[in-house]
């Protein structure tokens, strides 16, 4: 980019910052060849991002093509936006290409979900990513959306955070828009919605409040709602039974996961009963379906940026998460790009952190905390350390052969075989990052020892 073009882009951004609502006193300038941003917080970035999206011709084509095609003719749209038909098709092709990899099941060779479900997943992801927490994408649906979220909370006993309410609201709004565009859904070959006492009330809500719901398969729409609620962990028991082919796939995934967990050298199997491993494998197999349906996050780039830190904190579980991702994508014949694969690995890792006991992971590091010279409450200090240092770290107040790191406020000359970290003033934790790096190194060494031992055993 030339300096002229750069200045033009910066001037345009500066104008948007000055005129946009909710952007405060933010500004962008160039001083001595260096680009400076004043008060450019994350919220300002997100607000500006949405503002620029709304100005984008691609987004206007996206909205027309997928959400409002019935409101005007294509010719009228072309005239209103001063573009040719060729330009329209070129930009729509770029949009379709961006959407093609947004829903993993859309690229599966063995899971054939209804194309409307796949499309709604992609659309919901777009609106949630850009609008959530900033603006209502469909203000005309504000009243019925408020009724729906309140209805779900009362009827299904949901307790939702603001972000969870936002997810449910945007899911429902996309559902409404697509139904009223006569983009109907049929999930009967994919699942069976089990009868519950709440079912008639939920169906009745759609029939009374969504204009064209009577022409749609309302049972499939309710099934779609349950899939969404399950994917977001908003309900514990999903009253949906997958069709036999998909059940069989889940059994295959569950068996592969169980075999992986049972044979993995990354786990201490003395800490895991066989029944516990089976439950973990089953739970992870179900996650394989839910996480590939609706995966709503406002910052997908976070996965890329957090990769190193998460892998450092949980190296053993991260390797298991990668292996599970590989197994699931192979079984389901998924064609996913690097970004989607990274998200799947991250999702598996977060699920594993929640279900695998920390003491059962071979990379757990034991830290002896011994601030004998300082009047620092030991429990308080352990909580601070646990918060900063991440998972798979065990804190004790004694030194033994199992101790991996000795942390103290005084140096002990007799300790030679393990790293010794000395903090004369424990509450001035200026060298905490150094301690974190020491623990990371110990974890990696433990994992490498496990892998080397396993390789040696297989050779003998």
Outline the structure in words.
Helix content is 58%, strand content 7%. The protein has 460 residues and is an alpha/beta fold. The protein is built from 17 helices and eight strands. The longest helix is centred in the last third of the chain and has 28 residues, at 432-459. It has a four-stranded parallel β-sheet. Strands 1-2 form a two-stranded antiparallel ribbon. The termini are far apart. α3 (57-67) packs across α5. α16 links the parallel β5 (365-370) and β6.
State the main characteristics:
460 residues; 4-stranded parallel beta sheet; two-stranded antiparallel ribbon; 58% helix
* Secondary structure tally: strands: 8
**Proportion of residues in β-strands:** 5-15%
Rg over C-alpha atoms, rounded to the nearest angstrom: 27 Å
Count up the helices: 17
- Low-confidence parts: none
Helix content: 55-70%
Main structural class: alpha/beta
For the sheet with most strands, the description reads:
4 strands, parallel
Order of helices and strands: HEEHHHHHHHEHHEHHHHHEHEEEH
Sum up the overall morphology in one term: globular
**Rounded mean pLDDT score:** 84
Distance N to C terminus: 59 Å
Instruction: Give the strand order, joined by hyphens, for the main sheet.
Output: 6-5-7-8
Write the layout of secondary structure elements.
Elements: H1 3-19, E1 27-31, E2 34-38, H2 42-55, H3 57-67, H4 74-80, H5 85-99, H6 115-131, H7 142-156, H8 162-180, E3 191-193, H9 199-209, H10 218-231, E4 240-242, H11 244-263, H12 274-293, H13 301-313, H14 315-331, H15 338-355, E5 365-370, H16 378-389, E6 393-396, E7 405-408, E8 420-422, H17 432-459
Parallel strand pairs: 5-6, 5-7, 7-8
Antiparallel strand pairs: 1-2, 3-4
Helix pairs in contact: 3-5, 6-8, 7-8, 7-9, 8-10, 10-12, 11-12, 11-14, 12-15, 13-14, 13-15, 14-15
């Amino acid at each position: 980019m030339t300096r002229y073009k750069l200045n033009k882009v910066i001037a345009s951004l500066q104008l948007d910052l000055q005129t946009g609502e909710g952007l405060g006193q933010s500004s962008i300038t160039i001083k001595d060849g260096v680009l400076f941003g004043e008060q450019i917080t994350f919220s300002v970035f997100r607000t500006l991002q949405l503002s620029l999206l709304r100005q984008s011709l691609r987004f206007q084509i996206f909205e027309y093509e997928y959400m409002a095609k019935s409101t005007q003719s294509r010719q009228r749209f072309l005239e209103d936006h001063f573009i040719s038909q060729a330009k329209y098709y070129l930009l729509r092709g770029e949009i379709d290409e961006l959407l093609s990899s947004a829903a993993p099941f859309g690229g599966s060779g063995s899971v054939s979900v209804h194309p409307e479900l796949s499309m709604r997943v992609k659309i919901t992801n777009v609106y949630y990513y850009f609008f959530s927490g900033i603006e209502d994408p469909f203000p005309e649906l504000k009243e019925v959306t408020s009724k729906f979220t309140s209805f779900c909370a009362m009827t299904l006993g949901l307790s939702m955070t603001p972000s969870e309410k936002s997810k449910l609201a945007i899911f429902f709004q996309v559902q409404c828009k697509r139904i009223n565009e006569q983009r109907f859904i049929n999930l009967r070959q994919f699942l069976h919605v089990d009868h519950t006492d709440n079912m008639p009330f939920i169906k009745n809500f759609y029939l009374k409040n969504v204009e064209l719901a009577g022409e749609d398969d309302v049972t499939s729409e309710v099934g779609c709602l349950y899939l969404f609620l399950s994917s977001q962990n908003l309900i514990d028991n999903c009253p949906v039974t997958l069709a036999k082919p998909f059940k069989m796939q889940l059994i295959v995934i569950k068996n592969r996961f169980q075999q992986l967990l049972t044979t993995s050298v990354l786990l201490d199997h003395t800490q895991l009963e066989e029944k516990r491993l089976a439950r973990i494998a089953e739970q992870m197999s179900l996650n394989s379906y839910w996480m590939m349906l609706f995966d709503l996050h406002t910052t997908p780039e976070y996965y890329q940026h957090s990769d190193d830190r998460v892998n450092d904190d949980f190296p053993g579980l991260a390797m298991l998460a990668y292996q599970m991702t590989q197994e699931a994508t192979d079984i389901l014949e998924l064609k996913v790009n690097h970004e989607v694969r990274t998200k799947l690995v991250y999702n598996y890792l977060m699920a594993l952190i929640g279900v695998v006991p920390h003491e059962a992971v071979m990379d757990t590091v034991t830290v002896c905390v011994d601030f004998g010279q300082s009047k620092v409450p030991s429990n308080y200090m352990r909580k601070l350390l646990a918060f900063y240092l991440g998972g798979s770290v065990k804190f004790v107040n004694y030194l033994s052969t199992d101790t991996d790191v000795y942390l103290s406020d005084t140096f002990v000359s007799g300790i030679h075989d393990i790293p010794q970290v000395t903090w004369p003033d424990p509450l001035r934790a200026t060298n905490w990052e150094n301690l974190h790096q020491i623990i990371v190194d110990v974890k990696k060494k433990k994992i490498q020892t496990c892998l080397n031992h396993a390789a040696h055993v297989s050779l003998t």
